[in-house]
Amino acid sequence: MPDPQRDFYKLWAGQTISEVGSRIRREGLPLTAAFVLNATAAQMGVLAALGSASILVFSLGAGIIADRMRRRPLMIATDLARAALLGTVPLAAAFGVLSFGQIIAVAMLSGSSPFSSTSPISRTCRRCCPREI
Predict the structure, then answer these.
(1) Does residue 133 sit within a domain?
(2) For the whole model, what pTM was predicted?
(3) Fewer CB near the last or first residue (10 Å), C or N of the chain?
(4) In angstroms, what CA-CA distances link 20 with 44, 67, 100?
(5) How far apart are CA 59 and CA 118, in angstroms?
């Protein structure tokens, strides 16, 4: 029989790591655009709008897909995909090929994760943890 506390701690650790990626997306990408690419105020507005719009556009469809799949492998896969996307930014900057278009693409694609909302996470938590914890 699985240990509910161990399952909870694994979920907690995974979500902590995922939240670090979310913070990099929310704060790191705009700061990179501003300080590395010297983005204008209009460009920063476009980045914020498109980054938020991708969440709105993709979240409904992604939620439907997520409800029909096993959550744990999907959460791991989406977090790894988001990490790979975010990793392209410093890599491109190191080679001197970072562009504003890449920042926008990374913001939009990393924001379209099926787990940008907490609903699937809370269902997973309820499944792995009894009420006593």
Answers:
(1) no
(2) 0.78
(3) N
(4) 22, 24, 22
(5) 11
Q: Which domain holds residue 39?
A: 4-128
| Rounded alpha-carbon distances, angstroms, from residue 92 to 17, 64, 86, 95 | 23, 34, 10, 5
- With contact defined as beta carbons under 8 Å apart, do 117 and 59 qualify? yes
Domain count, the chain: 1
- Count CB atoms within 10 A of the CB of residue 116: 20
Record the tokens describing residue 109, joined without a space: 């694609």
pLDDT tens for each residue of 78-88: 888 888 999 99
